[in-house]
Amino acid sequence: MSTGHVLLGLLVERPKHGYELKKEHDHRLPGSRPLAYGQVYATLQRLERDGWAEVAETLQEGGPERTVYAITDEGKAELDGWLERLEPPAPHVASPLFARVVVATLAGGGADGYLLRQRAAHLARMRELTLRKADGTPAQVLAADYALQHLDADLRWIETAIARLADLKEEIDA
Amino acid sequence: MSTGHVLLGLLVERPKHGYELKKEHDHRLPGSRPLAYGQVYATLQRLERDGWAEVAETLQEGGPERTVYAITDEGKAELDGWLERLEPPAPHVASPLFARVVVATLAGGGADGYLLRQRAAHLARMRELTLRKADGTPAQVLAADYALQHLDADLRWIETAIARLADLKEEIDA
DNA sequence: ACACGATGTATTCATTGAATGAATAGTTCG
DNA sequence: CGAACTATTCATTCAATGAATACATCGTGT
């Protein structure tokens, strides 16, 4: 429940309500997919159910009702645990790129064309990100760097994949 | 529906039933998370609902019933489209690593320790994968290369993140 | 001065997809 | 007889989207 832990993290500062959490999440984690409101409130309910967050107060002072959530002691302990825990380093690599290459080869189409087009798209995206880095906040720069490093990793892999497509085809035909 | 497209790809060769598809998937896409049976059958139902696959025959020749699915013409067209489509190059980077660094900084703990431990874990995992590459099939080697490139990307990012933690903290405190 | 629409705040709901784990049931083989 | 393999189903949870609801504020034109 990665989203839940991030929300817990945002609650450490002070109690907040759903709308605020969504805004903060999108602001603090630029580059990550913006949270849908539905997901925020669903996640908050799970946090409450598990005792990691609780309703601090319900405000009705002009405007819609706002339900403010606070992190609990249990939630703080859980968050600490999450921060200590090492990210299991990619036990399973979910790679749409790899999947397509295998499927294209299986389906007989050949993956060369796809890989070449993908390489071009990656290069374009990297140029775009590099430009955007210039005027970003530190968080935006870090997020962009993360994306850039992984796009570069894809590019390197694409090169070796192109070179080894023949081997893959042989294995599949066998 | 990436899983669905992969299953479609496996059906191009010839009609297959769920159990066989699960085995083939896990075999053809080493390194990816093994499919749960439940997911295979649920996905097949969606493929059928969308007209991309259909029940070819139901066998009851000694042994449990087997429902064999075949790809339809519509499914072939969809698969071609999927293979043509470029992977939207990381519009949103879902990065547990980045998320933890931000949350650790927000929560006041500081992310240095976490990054150092994560670096060590990555290095260990890379050594392990490199060893396993030696005696792998071409598909396994490609999958391992994909993982290795991305672990290396993480490592590079970790270095720059360590160097820029102070900037991030400053942004958050402001 | 005030009706009106746009914008912003805050939450809920219905639905779908992804994923897990356990349960079921028959077959083969030692 | 029991263990292992083949094949499918079910119950449940989490993740995620998109639309709907509802109230408040604020600027604009008449």
From TrEMBL, chains A, B:
Keywords: DNA-binding. The keyword DNA-binding applies. Coiled coil: none annotated. It comes from the Bacteria. Transmembrane segments: none annotated. InterPro entries: Tscrpt_reg_PadR_N (IPR005149), WH-like_DNA-bd_sf (IPR036388), WH_DNA-bd_sf (IPR036390). This is DNA-binding PadR family transcriptional regulator. It comes from Nonomuraea dietziae. The lineage of its organism: Bacteria, Bacillati, Actinomycetota, Actinomycetes, Streptosporangiales.
